[in-house]
Specification:
Helices cover 71% and strands 0% of the residues. With 364 residues, it is mostly helical.
Length: 364
């Protein structure tokens, strides 16, 4: 029920905004016209900014001396100011919370916008009137109703092709019954598949065909208004370009006629310069090849010098001879020590033999 009420509020809002001519006075490329479900559900992230800008424009329509809020103000402060200004302008009392306006959609937003539109229409002296229908007598009205009922019933009846004579003869007119041949379970499955596709979807950033139509009209008017001025400017530019091209051609003819000698000298010098550049490139290539050969030769010379230095150092090195002398001296010292030890052992052997011989003599 609330959704139906909000939908009607949205329809009223679009009608009132159209009467206030908001498409030409408020809308812009950054703020396109809204569709019939814009403030019913969440549509875009910029929905609150659009709502605040529309409220500011409606307040300006109500009071020309109204000073709007800044873009850098806090959203809570903007909501409080919108609610306070609406209470000041209208005679209604609102018991809503200003935080509900921060979402940018819903019944509270539609109530505020409709109230501001009503105040703006009162200021612009525009009023709604009830429609006037053509008067008919009761007999004509009853005849029209009967004719419509008969036509609808005739449309609902099957045609002669659909019902054959056998069907009419097989069953009497009073006992005609409609029997379906569809399985109820299959029907339920098909209904579950199709029902999500039958739901109304709220397209994001959707613009109706009317917005495109009004934009096309606006652009066509601007093109027609600017066409004469632009065509005159283009004609002036065309004349200037023709004069400049004519002057350039005259200068070219003058240069070709009076500066032919200088042109020949320039061509010869330019040819010589090209030949010198070619020679320079050839010499530069040869210099690069020779420099590479020089680098390889210097590397070979440095390798040979290093090898010769190593060989000279090995020839003049006497460390091996000194090592041999040290080992010989150590061997001599060891030999002398061994000789001393051997003599001592011989002395002990002779002494033991002498003692043994002396002992044997005493025993005998």
């Amino acid at each position: 029920m609330a959704l139906i009420c909000n939908t009607s509020y949205m329809d009223y809002l679009l009608t009132k905004l159209t009467l206030l001519d908001y498409r030409s006075k408020f809308c812009s490329p950054e703020r396109p016209p809204i569709h019939s479900a814009y403030f019913l559900t969440k549509d875009t992230n910029n929905q609150f900014h659009y709502f605040s800008a529309l409220c500011c424009w409606l307040l300006l329509q109500c009071d020309e001396n109204f000073i709007g809020w800044s873009e850098f103000d806090a959203p809570d402060q903007i909501c409080n100011s919108i609610l306070q200004e609406t209470k000041n302008i209208s005679s209604k009392t609102f018991s809503m919370n200003s935080q509900k306006l921060r979402a940018g959609f819903g019944g509270e937003v539609l109530l505020i916008l409709n109230t501001l539109c009503d105040c703006a229409l009162l200021v612009k002296k525009k009023k709604f009137k009830f429609p006037k229908y053509p008067k008919k007598s009761q007999e004509e009205f009853n005849e029209d109703v009967v004719d419509e009922f008969v036509e609808s019933e005739m449309d609902d009846l099957p045609s002669d092709q659909e019902l054959s004579e056998e069907e009419f003869q097989s069953e009497p007119a009073q006992n005609l019954t409609v029997v379906t041949k569809v399985d109820p379970k299959a029907w339920e499955l098909e209904l579950e598949k199709v029902s999500p596709q039958l739901r109304v979807k709220n397209m994001r950033n959707h613009i109706e065909w009317r917005a495109h139509f009004f934009k096309a009209q606006k652009y066509s008017k601007s093109l027609k208004g600017n066409m004469t001025e632009i065509s005159q400017r283009l004609l002036k530019i065309q004349r200037r370009l023709k004069k400049q091209i004519h002057r350039i051609r005259d200068k070219e003819q003058y240069v070709n006629q009076n500066l032919s000698d200088i042109k020949g000298d320039f061509s010869t010098i330019y040819f010589q310069r090209q030949t010198l550049n070619e020679q320079y490139e050839m010499m530069h290539g040869s210099v690069q090849s020779l420099s590479e050969e020089l680098e390889t030769i210097t590397k070979q010379i440095s390798d040979i010098k290093s090898q010769s230095n190593k060989h000279n150092e090995s020839m003049t090195d006497t460390s091996s001879i000194q090592n041999i002398r040290k080992t010989i001296q150590m061997m001599k010292d060891e030999i002398e020590e061994m000789v001393v030890r051997c003599s001592i052992q011989q002395f002990f052997v002779l002494r033991t033999k002498f003692n043994e011989g002396k002992a044997r003599n005493q025993m005998q």
